[in-house]
Amino acid sequence: MRKFIMTVLAGTIGLWAAAQADQGAVYYEKGQQELQKGRLMVAYKYFDSAYGVNKTDVKIVGALAKSLNDLRRYPQAREKYLELEKLGDKSPETYNQLMTLSFNLRQFPDAVKYANLVRAVDPNAKVSYFIGKAHYDDENYGEATKWLQQALKEDPTNAQVPYLIARAYSDQNNHKLAMPFFLKALELAPDNNRWMYEIGLIYYALNDDQNSLKYLLMAADKGYRKDNEYMENLAIAYLNMKQVDKGLEILNEALQRRPADIGLLNMIAEANYDAKRWEAAIDAWDKVLELDKKNASALFMIGMSYQKKGEKAKGQALCDKAIELDPSLQRNRQKMEMPGM
Fold it and tell me: Which positions are tagged coiled coil (predicted)?
């Protein structure tokens, strides 16, 4: 009797499992039909129902993973692709999705892991860019440049590749090595105004003032936003090229919007001082003192400006007062009083 009961129970369980599998297949087929109609959300609901009754069917789990990915529910899609891998799916498509999703979700070690698995199953797969970009975002610049150089061979038309190589070198403060790759990137994407702006700043760091100004102006011509940062850098580029009036015009316009910006006032004062416009320099540093009455550096430079304009005694007295406030200014005095300074 006990044996008969056990046999019946086993048969019942078997029938139940078969019914569940059949129900999962029904939901899966309905999901596929909705997918063909372009109804992504409805298809997802059917695939999710199929998964609810059968979590081990590779076909169902794969459809659910793809559906989640299509709906841009990337963390959940990645979880399902990981389940798919555990179920034995080692296809290039699954590894490629895991590589891409891990990369986009900033899971950089996993992105590298799955990129290498893609290469293992498909030696012709072009995944060096993903590996290099993952290493770059993980601030591993040595590995990043190695893989990005390989990516440049795999796809010489992808402007992001030389750009990232340039950034990797630039982030290591090696602007000289970075510049050829910045220029290569811009050659491949000639309308990228942000890159033009970056190139202008890198040329500034390389003390190439002519090219710095050229690329800053080029960026604006291509639509780069003329915000405060851009305008300040443009003014500096003009000043470095000895186009003092243009540089000061930009800085004075900026001062209308930011009248309490001590850094900006100091820039204006220094530009006038370097151009031997002593009165204008004094006026700017006076405004600094209005905002910060204990600014010894501004007082010292007012004193130097008076000396340069011929009022030596008055200037020396002001410098002495500044040094009383900040004794460290004493070491600048002899240098500043030299002819030509």
Answer: none
